[in-house]
Design brief:
The protein is of the alpha/beta class. 24% of the residues lie in helices and 21% in strands. It is built from 7 helices and 18 strands. Strands 1, 2, 3, 4, 5 and 18 form a 6-stranded mixed β-sheet that branches. Strands 6-15-7-8-11 form a 5-stranded parallel β-sheet, covered by helices on one side. A 3-stranded antiparallel β-sheet has the order 12-13-14, with no helix packed on it. Helix 1 (18-29) crosses helix 7. The longest helix has 21 residues, at 335-355. It is globular. The two termini are 19 Å apart. The mean pLDDT is 89.
């Protein structure tokens, strides 16, 4: 710490989910020491990344692909336990095994230009000055709520996947589930078992994928998302281009009509949803399974965004500032992508640190 109370390190890692822990692991492998050379800051109250906030009925056996962190496999997990517990315990063990010394809970309010070519990272525990930043803040804290005419008049309940409590809360109710992703279908299938009625609406017809989602399929999906990021456009989720896995539960739900999809409604009424063709459906609850957006507002002072609205990346490096690595963003927002991105980002950081002496 210098005379002004600003702590100096080579690298600040923001976020201790899959991407952040992968990056921290590779920083250690590259010879950097936690506490001395880098620090990991996480806003969550405990280990587990966004997984710790998942609903209890999302058991580990239902998880849509979970790749192990580098250097330590997740073995012997009980598929009937909540994924929040399984993965939370795994992440905690991982942090201990590699002595990553995560600081939490720490809120990062802004990253801006600092002195001597360093980045100034302003947080709830003070200010850090870093030569490079590995940003791994994910999306969970920024749920996306679409806006439709009449939304404010609805007399029922509206909630988002981010606060989904599990199916019991919908017993005996008429529920409209909005969204064609994995979360939407999982919500719908379990709510249908207890609700009075369910309706599924999506903007586009869902695509169901046969066969296993292996590493080759994952890389193909990542490449499709990566193309948008290269052009400086806001990233789509990796799940949006993989399709929905067609397993036995999904086949059964399709056979019984639970997964019969309707096109997106045109407006919301006091008592439900309506289409311009005159069709109306009554509802007690609208559940928005409409995804999330990247948590990157703290980077706004650096002016990294392109005219298209996204941050253009060259690999994992922000095109507008070579000191900034984004992992868990766009193509690396999946668990397989996060692992690969953590390794790639650290290679970039190490090159930067080796090339640019302190203060240059």
């Amino acid at each position: 710490m210098n005379d002004f109370g600003v702590r100096e390190v080579d690298v600040v890692v923001i976020g201790a989910g899959q991407a952040g822990l992968s990056g921290a692991y590779h920083l250690r492998r590259a010879g950097l020491e936690p506490g001395r050379d880098f620090v990991v800051l996480d806003h969550a109250p405990r280990p587990g990344g966004a997984w710790q906030f998942r609903w209890p009925s999302l058991t580990y056996g239902k998880v849509h692909g979970m790749h192990a962190l580098p250097g330590m496999e997740l073995t012997g997990a009980d598929g009937d336990r909540p994924s929040s517990e399984v993965i939370g315990a795994y992440f905690a063990a991982y942090e201990d095994a590699f002595d990553l010394r995560v600081h939490r809970p720490v809120e990062v309010s802004a990253v801006r230009e600092g002195d001597g070519g360093r980045l100034r990272v302003e947080t709830s525990e003070g200010v850090w000055a870093a030569r490079a930043l590995l940003n791994a803040t994910g999306t969970w804290d920024r749920p996306f709520w679409p806006r439709y005419p009449g939304q404010e008049t609805f007399r029922g309940r509206q909630l988002h996947t981010a606060t989904y409590p599990g199916p019991a809360a919908f017993a005996g109710q008429r529920v409209v589930v909005v969204g064609g992703g994995a979360s939407g279908t999982q919500h719908l299938m379990e709510i249908a078992e207890v609700a009075a009625d369910t309706t599924w609406v999506t903007r586009r017809p869902p695509v169901f994928r046969e066969g296993p989602f292996d590493e080759a399929a994952g890389r193909e999906a990542v490449a499709l998302v990566e193309e948008r990021v290269r052009r400086g456009l806001p990233p789509m989720s990796v799940v949006s281009v993989t399709g929905l896995p067609l397993n036995d539960a999904v086949r059964a739900a399709r056979a019984t009509g639970v997964l019969d999809r309707l096109p997106m409604f045109d407006r919301i009424t006091e008592h439900g949803v309506a289409w311009d063709d005159g069709r109306e459906i009554g509802a007690d609850v609208i559940l928005w399974a409409t995804g999330f957006r990247p948590v990157i507002d703290h980077l706004a002072p650096l002016r990294l965004r392109e005219p298209g609205g996204g941050i253009r990346l060259e690999g994992t490096r922000a095109a507008r500032d070579e000191r900034i690595q984004l992992v868990g963003y766009g193509p690396s927002a999946s668990t397989i992508g996060a692992n690969r991105a953590g390794r790639a980002a650290v290679r970039e950081i190490k090159r930067l640190l080796d090339r640019r002496p302190v203060g240059v």
